[in-house]
């Protein structure tokens, strides 16, 4: 009889694309509380050692025990948080992704590397008691009388009797040297505290008082309060500037008063420093922000603070959805329609959709907030699955401005701007206000053309044109990032008559600077704001309120409160009107409404000019005349009639290869095999078809689409396809991915 204690097999999830677990034997080391699922272990894997998570403790393996290798080390004393493990397993299953890879992506980098979780300490600096010098005593001259910065540091530490972390000290403008000097003089000492032992936030909660709510806000908040202890999904549909954030803040306050945590997802913290600042201003308790600027240690600290329940307010972008919480109280997804919630490579999850699953699992309220809800969420609200809360009034005096369509046909343009737009800009600047010119193209011009023969600057690697840039001068492909110097003459006919075609941000900036030489023009796009804080600097300057011109891409459209902007000009609204992707119209309507929402948010009413070649397009007219809400409802009816999401569920198989024939062969095989398997099952299989941009970076892209009326019908098919691909050696010769609920084609 083999001893069961020795025959225990550990089934471990490893960071590998293979969608399976790997069996190991326990090593010599035994965890203090015995083997349990959720412990991180270090194991040999091929010739490497990797960090994995024990998922099951089994009594046997399909492999002979003699073939199994023992694990090398146990990394945790207690299992990782069970709710977090649940979320990772749910995510892996739903998105047909490897569990090990999902776990790895959901962990901070240091945990992935095997860094221990418990017992992490940090250093606190504290005054030594006797240094509270009685300055009036004449016998004891102050040792710091000639070191004013050190004296100032001492004064600051006096206000923090429990000590301050080095990071907090340096953030106040003091240096390491000043701290060391005080230490050498015997005035301060450091002490190590474990993070787990640190106190939960206690005491005062609010740093600044709440605003008295208007009627609609109060109704929304009351509805959220009423069902605080149950899964309660709500769509908070509120026009731009209607005070959604204030509703979030007051909900979070109530949740925090119960000692429970709120998780707030925002599209991009770097782009909306104001949102974070508002949270920090409101609350005394720390607001843990997860963003790309954190160091690995800060990220791990944040994870632990959330996992232990110490952090009451957690705010972050897409990946923050995977933050564990000991006492979850609410999840809020701000700007829920935003495309950045969907990850577009690897694990292609949608943070908003996972937020729904997570709130359901925790039985807590979920708030999806937007001025321009996604059709998915809107449909859930209209059909009664989500509570529909609406804010129709702006907190400030003026309602959102109507869009005025400006016909581009037969009108001269300067830097993309019609005379009507230029006149309006002049008037607005004359009145001492600011103007936002929105143009969804960075660079100088969308492309370079030969006027003699019609040649266009095309990318050699993609089915796309190259963008003309002036600073520095070059041609760049925005799809594959390849660059070329500007040609002196047309490569086809030799003519020197090469001209910039259309306008990008650089060109519009140049034109406006020429037209209004005395006014500052701020250009805001990925090229102008590469430096980490430059965007924040510009935003600050804009907020000071001097008349100026802002020229920018959608970076400017998202959530910013620009109180002095009273005119918004959209250079060209036509991008999404006739695109191949069925979501393009929804997305461009959202963007237009968000950009328009920047105008007239404070003391003066706003005006929005939208230039278009299709001023009689019925969708655009509906948006202009009645706003996003009626358009969204009409688009829903069109989707219903066409049986498109949200009235069906989709999965997209993407296949790519440098060899067109290889991609096509696999795509055809996969589609055929799937159709054979589907037989009479209620799932439709479309394709293979070439991707909208078939050649990108010299790789050929093909799609096979699955669609079904119900998620429960789609998933077995997606799962079968995933298994088929994994088992097929041909599939290893190309790159493939399966995208569940794809957001773009
Ligand atoms: P949203 O998130 O819907 O765009 P915000 O919450 O940012 O709107 O509110 C827009 C502006 O109105 C902010 O300056 C905010 O301080 C102010 N505000 C919001 N609610 C109120 C209120 N109840 N009373 C007064 N001002 C408010
Ligand atoms: Zn030519
Ligand atoms: Zn390219």
Description:
This protein is of the alpha/beta class and 745 residues long. It folds into 6 domains: 9-113, GIY-YIG endonuclease; 121-125 and 146-194, no CATH class; 215-391, Rossmann fold, CATH 3.40.50; 402-444 and 503-627, Rossmann fold (3-Layer(aba) Sandwich), CATH 3.40.50.300; 445-501, no CATH class; 649-740, Alpha-Beta Plaits. It is 31% helix and 23% strand. It has 21 helices and 30 strands. The chain has a 7-stranded parallel β-sheet, sandwiched between helices. A 6-stranded parallel β-sheet has the order 16-26-25-17-24-23, with helices on both faces. Strand 25, helix 17 (584-596) and strand 26 (607-612) form a beta-alpha-beta unit. Residues 1-6 have low confidence and may be disordered. The chain binds adenosine-5'-diphosphate and zinc ion (2 copies). One zinc ion binds next to loops.
């Amino acid at each position: 009889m083999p001893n069961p204690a020795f025959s225990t097999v550990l089934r471990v999830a490893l960071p590998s694309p293979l969608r399976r677990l790997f069996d190991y034997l326990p090593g010599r080391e035994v965890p203090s509380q015995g083997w349990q699922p959720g412990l991180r272990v270090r194991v040999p894997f091929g010739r490497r050692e990797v960090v994995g998570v024990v998922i099951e403790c089994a009594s046997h393996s399909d492999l002979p025990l003699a073939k199994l290798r023992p694990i090398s080390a146990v990394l945790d004393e207690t299992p990782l948080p069970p709710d977090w493990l649940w979320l990772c397993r749910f995510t892996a299953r739903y998105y047909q992704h490897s569990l090990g890879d999902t776990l790895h992506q959901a962990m901070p980098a240091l945990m992935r590397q095997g860094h221990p979780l418990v017992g992490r300490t940090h250093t606190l600096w504290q005054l030594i008691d006797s240094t509270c010098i009685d300055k009036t005593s004449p016998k004891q001259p102050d040792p710091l009388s000639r070191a004013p910065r050190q004296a100032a540091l001492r004064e600051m530490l006096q206000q923090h009797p429990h000590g301050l972390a080095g990071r907090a000290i340096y953030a106040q403008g003091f240096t390491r040297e000043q701290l060391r000097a005080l230490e050498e003089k015997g005035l301060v000492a450091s002490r190590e505290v474990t993070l787990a032992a640190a106190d939960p936030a206690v005491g005062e909660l609010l740093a600044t008082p709440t605003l008295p709510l208007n009627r609609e806000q109060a109704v929304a908040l009351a509805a959220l309060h009423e069902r605080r202890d149950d899964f309660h999904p709500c769509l908070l549909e509120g026009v731009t500037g209607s005070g959604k954030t204030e509703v979030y803040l007051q909900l979070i306050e109530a949740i925090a008063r119960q000692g429970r945590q709120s998780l707030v997802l925002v599209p991009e913290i770097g782009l909306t420093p104001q949102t974070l600042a508002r949270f920090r201003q409101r609350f005394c308790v720390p607001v843990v922000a997860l963003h790309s600027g954190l160091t690995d240690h800060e990220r791990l600290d944040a994870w632990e603070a959330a996992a232990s329940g110490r952090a009451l307010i957690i705010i972050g972008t897409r990946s923050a959805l995977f933050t564990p919480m000991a006492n979850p109280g609410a999840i809020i997804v701000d700007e829920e329609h935003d495309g950045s919630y969907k990850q577009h490579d690897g694990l292609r999850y949608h943070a908003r959709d996972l937020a729904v699953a997570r709130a359901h699992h925790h039985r807590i309220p979920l708030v999806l907030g937007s001025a321009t809800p996604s059709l998915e969420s809107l449909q859930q609200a209209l059909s009664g699955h989500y509570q529909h809360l609406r804010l129709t009034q702006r907190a400030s005096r003026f309602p959102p401005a109507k869009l005025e369509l400006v016909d581009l046909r037969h009108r001269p343009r300067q830097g993309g701007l019609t005379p009507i737009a230029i006149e309006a800009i002049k008037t607005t600047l004359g009145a001492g206000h600011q103007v936002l010119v929105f143009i969804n193209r960075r660079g100088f011009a969308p492309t370079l053309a030969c006027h003699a023969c019609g040649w266009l600057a095309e990318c050699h690697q993609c089915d796309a044109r190259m963008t003309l840039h002036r600073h520095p001068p070059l041609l760049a492909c925005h799809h594959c990032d390849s660059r070329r110097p500007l040609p002196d003459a047309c490569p086809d006919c030799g003519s020197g008559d090469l001209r910039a075609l259309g306008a990008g941000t650089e060109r519009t900036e140049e034109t406006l600077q020429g037209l209004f030489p005395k006014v500052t023009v701020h250009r805001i796009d990925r090229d102008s704001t590469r430096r980490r804080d430059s965007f924040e600097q510009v935003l600050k300057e804009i907020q000071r309120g001097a008349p100026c011109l802002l020229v920018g891409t959608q970076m400017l459209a998202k959530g910013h409160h620009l109180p002095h902007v009273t005119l918004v000009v959209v250079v060209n609204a036509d991008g999404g009107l006739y695109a191949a992707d069925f979501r393009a119209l929804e997305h461009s309507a959202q963007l237009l409404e968000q950009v328009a929402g920047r105008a007239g948010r404070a003391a003066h009413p706003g005006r929005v000019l939208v230039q278009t070649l299709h001023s009689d397009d019925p969708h655009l007219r509906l948006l202009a005349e009645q706003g996003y809400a009626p358009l969204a409802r009409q688009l829903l009816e069109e989707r219903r009639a066409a049986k498109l999401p949200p009235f069906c569920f989709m999965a997209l198989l993407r296949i790519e290869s440098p060899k067109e024939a290889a991609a096509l062969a696999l795509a055809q095989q996969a589609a055929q095999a799937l159709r054979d398997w589907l037989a009479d099952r209620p799932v439709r299989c479309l394709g293979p078809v070439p991707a909208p941009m078939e050649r990108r970076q010299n790789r050929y892209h093909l799609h096979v689409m699955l669609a079904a009326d119900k998620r429960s019908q789609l998933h077995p098919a997606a799962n079968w396809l995933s298994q088929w691909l994994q088992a097929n050696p041909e599939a290893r010769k190309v790159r493939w991915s399966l995208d569940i609920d794809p957001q773009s084609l």
